[in-house]
Amino acid sequence: MAVISEPAAAGRRSPFDWLQTILPKLVLAPSFAVTIVCVYGFILFTLYLSMTNSTMMPRLDSWVGLLQYEKLWSDPKWTISLVNLAIYGVLYIGISTAIGLLLAILLDQRIRIEGALRTIYLYPMAISFIVTGTAWKWILNPGLGLDKLMHDLGWTSFTFDWLINGDMAIYTVVIAGVWQSSGFVMAMFLAGLRGVDSDILKAAAIDGATLPQTYRRIIIPLMRPVFLSAFVVSAHLAIKSFDLVMALTAGGPGTSTWMPALYMYSLTFTRNQMGLGAASAVIMLATISAIIVPYLYSELRGGRRD
Question: Which stretches make up the ABC transmembrane type-1 domain (predicted)?
Fold first, then answer.
């Protein structure tokens, strides 16, 4: 009778072991295939459309090369969209980061009602940008909101007409965006603050450092990775902002609050210039990639080093 050695028996894999190995791959395969087709496939399709003369429907045989990009950069409305994005992005990212950091520092003091305050601050992020834009449209409407309230209270000289003022309307988008995103940034900073080694804080206290000095010279410099993460997330939200602008101002008055995403939507779906709209979408994707790819590279490189 043949005797099977232990190494040979260990080398054999039962059908159950093979099923355990292949089953996760089978489960993930449909999602992986859908991601490849619906994300990367359509990215390539959009890139191809941006080099065609497509109008209301895709025209794959109307190759024009980089002509759509030349039209894009010579269009004054695209320039206006980029200027608005620059104003909105700088203020939105800067103010959200400052308010989020301040709120995180206040909550880090272990106050008694921290749980309730954290929920209140995070609540706006649970609301869609459409709801946020609609709510702030009512609040800032001179005939319905803050302006009318002050007049009813007797302050008849009060005027806040930014929503209908072409020079100031973009700042109403900033107000609504900051209100919604500051709590999310606060949560990121609070998680970072709670991860600081307590021994560092004890050493600073022994050396006689006050609480403001401890935060300014020790804790906040340690928050550099959180600052970078907050910047990447906020920049991504700013670049692709569409629903907030659409609900709040619809791009008006005129084109004073147009953003690249609104420009892309308008050219593609209301003006039947699909090729030009695809070109603007490719520029937006390239901008987001220029922000996210270096961040992901630095994170992966740091993880390998660790």
Answer: 82-297
